[in-house]
Design brief:
This protein has two domains: about 150 residues, TIM Barrel (Alpha-Beta Barrel), CATH 3.20.20; about 160 residues, 3-Layer(aba) Sandwich (Rossmann fold). The chain is elongated. The two termini are about 40 Å apart. The protein has ten helices and 18 strands. Helix 2 crosses helix 6, helix 7 packs parallel to helix 8 and helix 8 packs across helix 10. The chain is of the alpha/beta class and about 325 residues long. The N terminus is likely disordered. The strands form five sheets. A six-stranded mixed β-sheet has the order 2-1-18-17-16-15, covered by helices on one side. Strands 4, 5, 8, 9, 10 and 11 form a six-stranded parallel β-sheet that branches. It has a two-stranded parallel ribbon with strand order 3-12. It binds flavin mononucleotide (FMN). Flavin mononucleotide binds next to helix 2 and helix 4.
């Protein structure tokens, strides 16, 4: 039974109908019943509106930028100098190129290439190494190259040992119409979890770009997903099948799957688990791409949940159920 149930539980509170869901756990992961991640991740900021622009000569800042991109699903953009910095250029306190640029208020090293369609980004993480207590001058070139009006800019930096100091606030004057967040310095090799905590503290929630999702072609063939606290990904484009039965149910599921839907929601009570299973098997979509939810109810099903779940497994006949919801009725006062 455990192998067949990838995710089990979630409580539906019923107040004259279903109004909220809460709590869940992964049987295979031995989860602790504390879910809620899926419903909390509201698409306040779409991932496609988030840019992570960074300058990095020896990859320290780049690795932080990559963690941020992984966390936010944002787009990475490397600020590449037209004339690359050699190891010699970077040897500081030698009077080399980097030293000279930092000492010259007018230095604006040229950038190779540009951000495509900067207007579509609302949130910009801006990364750089500390050079003599400040951002490298190529950050000035970058900030002077675009209109950042109304955009949120979140600076981050890496350094050998210095703090961020005034390096972030000194950049404000170069894009005064942007909305600047306090910057943050990271040490080399900072763990993903620390970066995740920092992003969380910014109060900006990131979500896949649902509005622009192309249902017909999918994004790399997949519907957008949210990561549940159980560690499983749940597609957010789903078909609810209440009131669908027989051939209409089968053709609806087949049609939805062919167009990129990857979550199918059913219930014992809907009386259509068999048709849904048939449609999933016929669809040609790999089973692991489809997230199947079904539900059990108070009464005889709650009295013997193992048997109830087994019944749903048998009717669906799709190998496993991704999420099992338990319907309960909340007391009203
Ligand atoms: C010209 C130059 C000046 C630097 N100045 C400082 C500094 O003032 N304080 C500090 O802690 N590190 C300083 N560093 C070290 C870098 O900030 C550090 O190695 C950074 O993480 C490199 O990032 P990157 O690998 O992304 O280029 C300096 C490095 C260079 C090349």
């Amino acid at each position: 039974m455990k192998k067949l149930l990838r995710v089990i539980s979630v409580i539906f509170m019923t107040l004259f109908g279903l109004t909220a869901c809460n709590a869940g756990s992964s049987v295979e992961n031995g989860g602790d019943g504390n879910m809620g991640g899926g419903t909390n991740r509201l698409p306040v900021t779409s991932a496609s509106n988030t840019l992570i622009a960074y300058f990095s000569c020896t990859n320290t800042t780049e690795s932080i930028a990559m963690h941020i991109a992984a966390q936010t699903d944002g787009t990475l953009y490397e600020i590449v100098p037209e004339v690359p910095y050699t190891a010699e250029d970077l040897r500081y306190y030698t009077g080399g190129r980097a030293d000279r640029e930092q000492a010259d208020a007018t230095a604006r090293p040229a950038i190779s290439g540009s951000v495509e369609s900067i207007e579509k980004y609302d949130v910009i993480f801006l990364g750089y190494p500390i050079w003599h207590g400040q951002a490298p001058k190529i950050l000035c070139t970058f900030l002077e190259s675009y209109d950042f009006s109304g955009k949120k800019i979140i600076p981050f930096c890496t350094s050998h040992s210095s703090g961020i100091g005034s390096s972030d606030t000194n950049l404000h004057a170069l894009a005064p119409t942007a909305s600047w967040f306090s910057g943050r310095r990271f040490a080399a090799g900072t763990a993903q979890s620390a970066i995740a905590d920092w992003i969380e503290s910014l109060g900006i929630k990131f979500a896949p770009d649902v509005a622009n999702f192309d249902l017909a072609s999918g994004e790399n063939g997949y519907a957008p997903t949210v990561m549940l606290n159980s560690g499983y990904e749940m597609p957010i484009l789903g078909l609810g099948t209440y009131s669908l039965t027989g051939d209409v149910c089968k053709s609806s599921v087949l049609s939805a799957l062919s167009q990129g839907y990857r979550l199918i929601d059913t219930a014992h009570m809907y009386g259509n688990e068999r048709e849904i299973g048939e449609a999933i098997r016929q669809s040609g979509v790999p089973r692991e791409e489809i997230f199947v939810i079904t539900k059990i109810y108070p009464g005889t099903q709650f009295a013997n949940p193992e048997q109830a779940i087994q019944e749903s497994l048998d009717k669906l006949n799709v190998g496993y159920i991704d999420m099992m919801l338990c319907i309960i009725r909340a007391q009203t006062t």
